[in-house]
């Protein structure tokens, strides 16, 4: 039956379906971190905002966010409804922000044609953000000139540094404000963006969406010209933004940089792609998805074509793969033979694995987080036994610097809190033949990063405050734990990255859906050794720190009360349905009876045949 | 009731399978009756529910599906190993050089439905292992019962056919190694008429890359449909993929499997009953990709 007729017949169900889904609501904003190669700029993203700060001087590098173009209606039937919604939003925005913001808003916003653009402009003026939805992808190009961001608003944007301030950020720049980075390219994805990166040469931006397609957008070859063009349209749009005609002009100008369609490179069918990494040889691309697979594909000669060949699948993980990275061995270090690059992947089953990506063979596996439920322990008192196990595991490995005593205290609290969500998931770890992970539930590996010299891998496990540092041994091609490092002021680390000079950066924050806090920490290898020590204050100037971090004390208290511990990885796990109802429903299936009848028939036939054979034998013998 | 009379009754009963007038207590039917296994034609392939998928192809135990063949292979391995060791040569070398590969599935029928093509192919290619993949639970149960009944009826044949319930669009690389298959069949796939659902069609560019990964170079991919637009779509996607090349009509005349495409499956028989036209597209997997535009 038609959609409208169904809506009339089931008004409550239709209303329920129009509400935002629970998974969209509880998704905490991911904190992302990226470091510009060959420079001292660090980019941090939380929710829809992206902040770039030069951490040596503390100045903020602004992003010139284009004025939002008129929101095109998603479907022709929705145009009227969307215009009404936009008008209502504009009225509310106009009422709340009566002071004129940077772009002057027209006083009356009833013009139906303009309602969309002015509402968006009003919203953008109130809070200009890089994306309208949560930012999920943040990556610098290999030469450091461009920044790729992708978000839940189904768009991927490329920002480029203006020519003057790119390259060296040496003492020459005495001006207090840096030139803004304009958006030189913007692409529409069919679904929300979930992972991204650059090709090895930096000529193309690759981003993947939640459906599983990996899309390619070309980086404009002549970046300076593109930057100039984008900057020109932005300023022109901003200066003349009052009056309906001018807003139309601004919309058109912004539209010039907007919404190109990217070409599709390859696809993991219907699987959220979680990581995109280009191999150092320049010929292969590794992509990982939530269906436990890592796929290494051969790139076509030109990146706008399709990738037709799969090099290998790296199969072995028991749960969604959350992050991948290539480890490149520095020439001249060590004497191990074999390839100079290996693939490292971290997954929801708590392991970090090392792969020879050309053949798909697994070389090593390191268990970063112990499975939480052991059968024997689960039979006994669940809370106490599991908490005890985890505490032991954490303490025996804990050699990190920083407030170790404080860490131990908070460790208990965390383990106690996370029994709730995982005690529920216990019962269906085995038994039902689902493609859900058969591995016992444990804290997933959230993010990993490989140091530039290829010797260290930093691993973030969700829910733990300690970042584990593993030594990657090229001679034996294995991963050994080396150190567990925690920062006194960074809670719930979310992502790690290595800076160009080998410093280890971490960003974290309370994983609540409404959280705004961002904690940043830095560590560097101690002189003469391979241990890392915290050096946040030494590296970040107070101004930089103020620009990057947001501290909201009451969020920690909220988290302790009832925060969901594995909130970041919920989006990769399947929603859990009621098993009892499903089995009940299936019990009365018609084909079960027929199958049972056939099985009984065969048993009778076998018994009869065996009886006849036995009778014949005894008859022969007698 | 002796086994021999059962088989006769079973074969006559199969002739009027859908006959509801048959009294249940008159005779025992040894073949599964299709009316208990009817299911809707559509099952959403984007669902993730209830599949037992191996982590890697090497981890999967095929003896559950081909018990006799795998047992025979293991006996041959053991015998070869014993013979090599007895012959005095280093046991490891002898076994390694003389060992035959484990029997591997070579033909795959994606969306095999009620198993018509599988059954026909099993007799034409008795030495090749073939697997049918179907997403619907009930229909897979029917095919499983049918193969079991056929194996009992004619001992020694149909040992090479089996069925698996899985979502072929997502989990094929988990079951098969690179280049393992030599033929893939897509008979009367779901057309998904709405433009928004075109991405669910089983032949699309991204999935063709995966199929090319699993097909050995020179392997054939067979498709047939009774919907003209879908035939056009599949032809254009296959033509547009650099690793596939159309097989000429003369070769198709000579090929046994191509001749079976139109009439062997239940869906094909229904199309013939209704007098519809079928559109057949058979392509070969190339060793090297053709240059793209």
TrEMBL record, chain A:
Basic residues composition bias: residue spans: 1-11
Keyword line: Nucleus, Repeat, tRNA processing, WD repeat
Gene Ontology biological-process annotations: RNA (guanine-N7)-methylation; tRNA modification
GO cellular component, one term: tRNA methyltransferase complex
Bias (Acidic residues) ranges: 387-418
Low complexity composition-biased segments: 602-616
Location, primary (coarse class): nucleus
Annotated region (Disordered), positions in chain: 1-28, 377-445, 602-622
Superkingdom to which the source organism belongs: Eukaryota
WD repeat copies, ranges: 128-159, 342-365
Localization per Swiss-Prot or TrEMBL: Nucleus
InterPro entries: Trm82, WD40/YVTN_repeat-like_dom_sf, WD40_repeat_dom_sf, WD40_rpt
Compositionally biased intervals (Basic and acidic residues): 12-24
Pfam families found in the cross-reference section: WD40 (PF00400)
Protein name: tRNA (guanine-N(7)-)-methyltransferase non-catalytic subunit
Organism ancestry: Eukaryota, Viridiplantae, Chlorophyta, core chlorophytes, Chlorophyceae
Automatic annotation (TrEMBL), chain B:
Enzyme class, first EC level, given as a word: transferase
Gene3D superfamilies for the chain: Vaccinia Virus protein VP39
Entry-linked InterPro entries: SAM-dependent_MTases_sf, Trm8_euk, tRNA_(Gua-N-7)_MeTrfase_Trmb
Binding site for S-adenosyl-L-methionine: 111, 134-135, 167-168, 187, 265-267
Tagged with keyword tRNA-binding: yes
E.C. code: 2.1.1.33
GO biological process: RNA (guanine-N7)-methylation; tRNA methylation
Active site (UniProt): 190
Keyword field: Methyltransferase, Nucleus, RNA-binding, S-adenosyl-L-methionine, Transferase, tRNA processing, tRNA-binding
PANTHER family named among the record's database cross-references: 3-DEOXY-D-MANNO-OCTULOSONIC-ACID TRANSFERASE/TRNA GUANINE-N 7 - -METHYLTRANSFERASE (PTHR23417), TRNA (GUANINE-N(7)-)-METHYLTRANSFERASE (PTHR23417:SF16)
HAMAP family the record matches: tRNA_methyltr_TrmB_euk
Membership in a protein family: Belongs to the class I-like SAM-binding methyltransferase superfamily. TrmB family.
Protein name listed in UniProt: tRNA (guanine-N(7)-)-methyltransferase
Organism, as annotated: Chlamydomonas reinhardtii (Chlamydomonas smithii)
Source lineage: Eukaryota, Viridiplantae, Chlorophyta, core chlorophytes, Chlorophyceae
